[in-house]
């Protein structure tokens, strides 16, 4: 069974130079995660590595539940138990999220970049699952959706309880990108997964990430 060896978190110094983007309807943490799988007998020996990038809304990430979901997804392939995530990883990441969000240098900044290094010990006698290598190859990266897929979004004018997009999982009354409720005649767009957002909001989101904000449906990328 794998166990945590060390965790280090710091803000990317380059983000202090980044100017706020007034076009973004939400504030983001962009987190670059490096995972190092090391030998328990010789921690200086790296057995496997992974590099993941995650973009999350700051207002949604400042809660233990949301942090736990993201972290569990990050380390799912490394044999770390949910209990260990709760006690050894989540508290540090949640604490840093609140710290970074409140730093004077970050006030008014819409994008805050930070990095996490996690060292995970494994016994050299334990076989490293081949699925780890495959998962690293297939890891979801947060890339912009293709321009053609954004252009192909189904668009309509919102009409309460009558809109043709209002069905199934798309029956929410508000946009989960900007958190505002839909109003009559708002221009909305439906993702292929049937989730509905303000058109401008989802276009700006997809220009940053190809994943649906609600269900992580993957839009095509270039």
Straight-line N-to-C gap: 39 Å
Subunit organisation of the chains: single chain
Quick one: overall form?
A: elongated
Mean pLDDT: 76
Helix and strand sequence = EEEHHHEHHEEEH
Give me the count of strands.
Answer: 7
Structural class: alpha+beta
Query: Which residues form runs of ≥5 with pLDDT under 50?
Result: 125-140, 166-171
Lateral arrangement of strands in the main beta sheet: 1-4-2-3
Task: Draw up the topology in text.
Elements: E1 3-11, E2 28-39, E3 46-57, H1 58-61, H2 64-74, H3 82-102, E4 111-122, H4 130-137, H5 147-151, E5 154-157, E6 187-190, E7 196-198, H6 199-206
Parallel strand pairs: 2-4
Antiparallel strand pairs: 1-4, 2-3, 5-6, 6-7
Quick overview of this protein structure:
This protein has about 220 residues and is of the alpha+beta class. The chain has two domains: about 5-135, no CATH class; about 145-205, 2-Layer Sandwich (Herpes Virus-1).
